Structure formats: structure tokens, C-alpha cells
Amino acid sequence: MRKLKRSARLVEMTQYLLARPHTLISLTAFADRYQSAKSSISEDLAIIKEVFEEEGIGQLHTLAGAAGGVKYIPTVRKEAALAVIREICRQLEQPERVLAGGYLYMTDMIGQPAIMSEVGRMFATAFAGREIDVIMTVETKGIPLAYATAMHLNLPVVIVRRDNKVTEGSAVSINYVSGSTKRIQTMSLARRALREQSRVLIIDDFLKAGGTVQGMIDLLAEFDATVAGVGVFVESGEVGAEERLFHDYVSLARLTHVDLKTKQTTVVPGNYFDD
Amino acid sequence: MRKLKRSARLVEMTQYLLARPHTLISLTAFADRYQSAKSSISEDLAIIKEVFEEEGIGQLHTLAGAAGGVKYIPTVRKEAALAVIREICRQLEQPERVLAGGYLYMTDMIGQPAIMSEVGRMFATAFAGREIDVIMTVETKGIPLAYATAMHLNLPVVIVRRDNKVTEGSAVSINYVSGSTKRIQTMSLARRALREQSRVLIIDDFLKAGGTVQGMIDLLAEFDATVAGVGVFVESGEVGAEERLFHDYVSLARLTHVDLKTKQTTVVPGNYFDD
Questions:
Q1: Dihedral sign, Cα of residue B166, residue B168, residue B174, residue B177
Q2: Of A25, A58, A74, which residue sits at a domain end?
Q3: What is the rounded distance in angstroms from the CA atom of residue B100 to the CA atom of residue B162?
Q4: What is the pTM of this model?
Q5: Contact at CB, B101 and A151, closer than 8 angstroms
Q6: Average of pLDDT values for A206-224?
Q7: Is B98 found in the same domain as B56?
Q8: Mean predicted lDDT score pLDDT of chain B
Q9: N vs C: which end of chain A shows fewer Cβ within 10 Å?
Q10: In Å, what is the CA distance from A267 to each residue of A86, A92, A206, B158?
């Protein structure tokens, strides 16, 4: 790269860091990239760090020493996240979203990458401190949420299939009981899709009794993998805690009430916002 | 927002623009946000524009006049894209990817958000000039590609299902013949998922004879919607042009040869890189 003035370098470094979350970049790499002294780079990083942290964009972790460098950790402040979730709750309460069986139509919302990116940033904030190797979800609506989270955490995604496709090679299948329909269903994952011993963050769109997530947890056992966390976009508050198959999860919104006759629903912020 | 020094403002503006591709932001909005004169904002934008364009990050379109403002258009240079695609081709040629039926295992690559983001930027560059309302794909492997593209183009995504889920409401289903297996399959889309008259960019992971994409095109007709473009990650060059159901598409890579016995494959850059 040609040598840049400080102002231009700040612009370039900002975009470079934003495109590489959770990635350690050494001062030497920056000094080489910008043909500048490490002392100048350090001054630039101090400016970027202050803006990122003051404006709630994320944290810039600086590691001192010979192996030192900087790592951008995308985060969102609780109050900013709450404002976003309140607007999402308001939209989810629209009566035309109520479907047969007490489900909510959320596909249009999940279809908006900008909203998914904000939601992914919340999950990335909630799970930033955990040791995670990979994010897992089950097709179809969990996929956009899983990728948005993975983008911010710099992690790969594995998608559990509801069938066993020819294009995946040999696969492990398990049966599980869908908590809401009480029917036996199948999910499968290609043998080569997940390394043994992986620490896995499970992300899904909707949590009722939890049969689907429990299915993924059972599937992990087949790979000698472990659960590093569970994040769901919306949980149904109509399921009592005693009915739920597991209890350690982060929810961003909670559907507390559905009246199928009047199509009135109540959606409130999830347990991520509990104090 | 508190008033920032120029250096800090450049950092904040850079992240603000990067998070809002294909969105017109007025000079007035920036001047209010940063409590600064429009002349200072214009100077900042000139610096950002120069860095974005010189370093191949994207374009900053400036619109003059009372309704004026600035719009960030993410792009990638052909030579930078070619370097990325060459590395992808190299990885796709690994013999262990060859599956029964001449398919390639690509799920691990599609599972990497950073690669998807680069691929999405290529599609966003290829289709930046078209009038598009929405991006469509079919589950499952097309979804990460569609979202990565949608993120850069600031467009919503609709996902065509291979079944008809209870959580979607009333849906339109069509039958199509999968070009490779010659079997009749079904795809469906919720009636409310797509507005009539929409201009739709179709994105998919793999194109063989084109039955799946043709199915999506037929589905669009049911919604009085039109095709604004077709983008595929990998096309199979083993299908002759005369066999292919349609011809106007952008491919990023082309699988030109598969030897099932030796598991040797050849993958080359796709027609996006043709002159």
C-alpha cells in the first residue's frame, strides 16, 4: 500500500479493523502495511479505540509486548440493544403475524440483513467471553442469525439439515421430538462438518419447549462436541420453565402472550436484558 | 453525539458509512450528527472517498444540491476478486471434495462468513448497476451467499422453501424438474414473502443444468415478479450451453472437469472474470 497521510490512514485502519473482528493484528503488520513507525500506528489506534469505545461501536483490545497487537471486539451497549429490541417487539406484535398454532410470522424480519446484523451483534456481545470454535444452527430460519453472529465473532458456521443431502457425504442422523408438535423428526449433520471436541454455540430463531435445540445438543454428543452456549432470537413465554428441556440460554425477545382469537400478542425483551 | 475532533470524526464517519451501504445520507444529517459545518463534513468525505476509491474498498457517490448527500457503494476490483477466486478454486480442487454423482463438497467453504462476505461483495459489484428490490435464493446452501450479497447491496432476502412450513402462512408451490437428477421436486414461497412486480436478483450456490434456478424464475411469474439477474457461486462446465435452461447469469467459478475415478477436478474462475 502507498504511504498515506494520518487522516487517510485513520480511514483505512478503521475499515481494516472493522472487516476483521476478533482477529489479532500485530503492530508490526500495521507498521508494514502503512509504512509508518509503530509509534504513529499506536497513536492512530488510540484515537480509533477512543471513538469505538465512546460511541459504543466495540472494544479495541491492545496486547503489549513483542507478540503485541490489537483486536477489535464488536459489541453493542445494553441501552442501544434495548432500543433495537423494543422496535423489533413492536413489529412482532402486529396482529397479521399470528399464524395457526400460535406461531409468529417472522420471515420478513429475518429477511432484513441490517436487522440480522444488529441481532448478531447482540449475540456476539453476549457470548464474546466464551471459548467457542464454531456456531451451529438448524435450517432454515436460524441460518441468517447464525451467520450474522459468526460474522461478528469471526467463527465458522455449521448448518444441521432436516434431511440428508447427497452433496454432503456421510452424515450422522438423530431423531428428536419436536416439543411443540410432539412428532418425531430427523436432523443430520455431515460427518466432516464438525471436528470432534469442538465447543459449539447454538443459535436458533424460535424456542418453544426446546426440542430442536435439545436435538442439536444430542447431535453434538455424537461428535464428542460440547455446548458453549445457546442463543435464541425469540422464546415463547407460554412454555413453563418446568416443561423446558434446558435452562441455560440467552433470548433476545420473549413472546409472553398470544390470543389466537383476537390475534393480540405481547412481545417483550428477552432474558439478555435481565439484570 | 458529542462533538468530535476531525481525526475522531473520520473514524466515526468511516464506520457509519461502512455500516450503511447503498444508503443516501444527507450532508445535513452528517452535519447534525457531528455538530459540524457542512464544509468540514465535505472535506472529511473527500478524504474518505479518496481512500475508499484508491484502496479498492468501494465508491462514495456524492449527490450535489439541496437533496444532496453521499452513498457508499461497496465494490471489489477485478484483480483483487480474481486473487480470492483463484484461492477458492485451488481449495475446491482438493480431491477429498469429490462426492458421489460428481458433486463437490463446498459446505465448509460456505460456512466461513469471511469468505462469504468477499463473495457477496463480488456479486454486489457485478449487480450494483441493476434495479433490484429483493434477493431470492432457495434453501439451504444458497442462503449464506444471498445474505452476504444482500448485506452489501442493502436489500432484503426471500428464501424459497423446499417444503411448505406451518410458520409461513399461505404459500405458492410449484413443481420443477431438477436438471441433474431429472426428478420432479417442489418449491414454495409464502404469499406474503414477495410483493407483486418485484425485481428479483436470484443467487444460488451451484448451477448444473439450471432446473432449480428455472424453478425460481417460474415461481417469480406466479408473483408477477421479474428477474433482475442471476448469480451463481460455482457453475458446472460439464453441462453444454445447449442443455442449459437459461443463459444470462454471472458465475464466479466454473467446475470444468471431474474425474470420479481419480477424484481430480479442475475449477477455474467463472464468467464474471471474462473480458
A1: negative
A2: A74
A3: 22
A4: 0.96
A5: no
A6: 94
A7: no
A8: 93
A9: C
A10: 9, 7, 13, 24
Residues A157 and A47 in one domain: no
Using a CB-CB cut-off of 8 Å, the residues of chain A touching B108 are: 156, 192-193
Q: Is the CA virtual torsion A13, A16, A17, A23 positive or negative? A: negative
Establish if A80 touches chain B: CB-CB under 8 angstroms: no
In this structure, are A67 and A82 located in the same domain? Answer: no
Which whole number is the average pLDDT over A22-45?
Answer: 95
* pLDDT, chain A, mean: 93
Beta bridge partners of B70: B25, B62
> What's the N-to-C CA distance of chain B in angstroms?
47
Please report the residues numbered 191 through 210 in chain B whose beta carbons come closer than 8 angstroms to any beta carbon of chain A: 192-193, 206
Nearest-by-CA chain B residue for A7: B7
Is A7 in contact with B47 (CB distance < 8 Å)?
Answer: yes
Output the domain CATH number for residue B29. 1.10.10.10
As a whole number, mean pLDDT of residues A162-191 equals 82
Point out the residue among B8, B114, B159 whose CB comes nearest to the CB of A140: B159
A104, A23: one domain: no
Q: Which domain holds residue A251?
A: 78-273
Contact assignment for A52 to B11 by CB distance below 8 Å:
yes
Amino acid in the structure at residue B261: K
How many whole angstroms from its chain centre is CA A54?
Answer: 23
B14 part of a folded domain: yes
Residues of A in contact with B139 (CB under 8 A): 139-140
**Are B243 and B160 in a shared domain?**
yes
Domain total in chain A: 2
Q: Clarify whether residues B54 and B104 are in a common domain.
A: no
B156 contacts A140? CB cut-off 8 A: no
- Residue A179 is predicted with a pLDDT of 64
**Contacts of residue B104 in chain A, CB cutoff 8 Å?**
167
Please give the DSSP secondary-structure letter assigned to residue B138. E
Pick from A107, A119, A255, A263 the residue to mutate for testing the B interface (most B CBs within 10 Å).
A107
Weakest-pLDDT range from A149-153, B170-174, B199-203, B220-224: B170-174
Put simply, the answer to whether B193 touches A108 (Cβ < 8 Å) is yes
> Which of A50, A74, A98 is a domain's end point?
A74
Backbone angles phi, psi at A99, to 5 degrees: -110, 165
Question: Using CB atoms, which residue from A18, A50, A103 is nearest to B167?
Answer: A103
Cα gap A90→A110, rounded to integer Å: 15
pLDDT of B166 strictly over 60: no
Residue A131 sits in the same domain as residue A185: yes
**Same-domain pairing of A13 and A36:** yes
Could A107 and B11 be called an inter-chain contact, meaning their C-beta atoms sit closer than 8 Å? no
**Per-residue pLDDT, B90:** 98
Residue A230 identity: V
- Which residue from A19, A111, A167 is facing B103, i.e. has the nearest CB? A167
Interchain CB distance below 8 Å, B154 and A51: no
Residue A235 has pLDDT above 90, yes or no: yes
Residue B178 banded pLDDT, cuts 50, 70, 90: confident
pLDDT of residue A166: 56
Residue A15 falls inside a structural domain: yes
pLDDT of residue B179: 64
